[in-house]
């Protein structure tokens, strides 16, 4: 982790795997920059904001992002972008992992029921990520009754801003793939499936149904 982030209530979550764990699909240098520079910058910016807004460090992230209009206008933009980025990336690192297996059990049943099976789901997820103009994310949102949907968000917006929860998601900002794929976002979207940790996604799905899924 970089030393640049000022101390404060927000911390950069460590990766649970080495940065070269996903080669050749995602190269180690991209992982190092993505986690240690981009995500770290969101954390550093949040800690700076929290110096004058300490309530940000004690509230649940989902409560803050779900009620952005309650924030003072002087910090709303910074919180939206940086707390959204922190939440998105925390989820992103969590749902990735080497030897991620395949979806099974309730998650697979939900994919079959709501998204038309794995092949259709992956194709439509990739297509949605490819259509996202500029920077943003493609998510699978999950409702409290376990229903799944594919949705996109611009920049670092997060489904929590709309009272929803992300089961999983892929980052389609250029910093997530450009060293290896340049302008070939479609190739990155296809390759990214090799990095998905379905056991973690199953845990998140169970938490969503129990009403305990946060970031």
Q: N-to-C terminal Cα separation, in Å? A: 21 Å
Mean pLDDT: 95
* Number of H/I helices: 8
Give me the Rg, rounded.
17 Å
Give the low-confidence spans: 1-5
Into which percentage range does the β-strand content fall? 5-15%
- Order of neighbouring strands in the sheet with most strands: 2-1-3
Helix content: 40-55%
Inertia-based shape: globular
Could you give the order of the helices and strands? HHHHHEEEHHH
Tell how many strands the DSSP assignment holds. Answer: 3
For the sheet with most strands, the description reads: 3 strands, antiparallel
**Estimated structural class:** mainly alpha
Could you outline the blueprint of secondary structure elements for this entry?
Blueprint lengths: L27 H25 L8 H5 L7 H22 L10 H11 L2 H14 L4 E7 L5 E7 L11 E6 L6 H4 L3 H8 L5 H13 L5
Antiparallel strand pairs: 1-2, 1-3
What tags apply to this protein structure?
215 residues, mainly alpha, 8 helices, 3 strands
Notes on the structure:
The protein has 215 residues and is mainly alpha-helical. It contains 8 helices and 3 strands, in the order H-H-H-H-H-E-E-E-H-H-H. Strands 2-1-3 form a 3-stranded antiparallel beta sheet, sandwiched between helices. Helix 5 (118-131) packs antiparallel against helix 7 (185-192). The model is unreliable at 1-5 (pLDDT under 50).
């Amino acid at each position: 982790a970089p030393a640049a982030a000022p101390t404060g209530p927000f911390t950069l979550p460590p990766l649970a795997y080495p940065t070269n764990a996903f080669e050749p699909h995602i190269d180690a240098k991209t992982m190092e920059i993505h986690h240690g520079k981009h995500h770290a910058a969101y954390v550093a910016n949040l800690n700076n904001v929290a110096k004058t807004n300490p309530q940000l460090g004690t509230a649940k992230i989902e409560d803050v992002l779900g009620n952005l209009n309650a924030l003072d206008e002087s910090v709303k933009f910074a919180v939206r972008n940086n707390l959204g980025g922190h939440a998105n990336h925390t989820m992103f690192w969590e749902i990735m992992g080497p030897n991620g297996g395949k979806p099974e059990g309730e998650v697979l049943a939900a994919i079959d029921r709501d998204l038309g099976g794995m092949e259709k789901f992956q194709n439509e997820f990739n297509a949605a990520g490819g259509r996202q103009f500029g920077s943003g994310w493609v998510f699978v949102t999950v409702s409290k009754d376990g229903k799944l949907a594919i949705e996109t968000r611009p920049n670092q917006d997060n489904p929590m801003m709309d009272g929803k929860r992300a089961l999983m998601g892929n980052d389609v900002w250029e910093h997530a793939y450009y060293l290896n794929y340049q302008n070939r976002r479609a190739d990155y979207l296809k390759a990214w499936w090799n990095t998905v940790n379905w056991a973690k996604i199953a845990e998140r799905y169970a938490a969503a149904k129990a009403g305990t899924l946060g970031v």
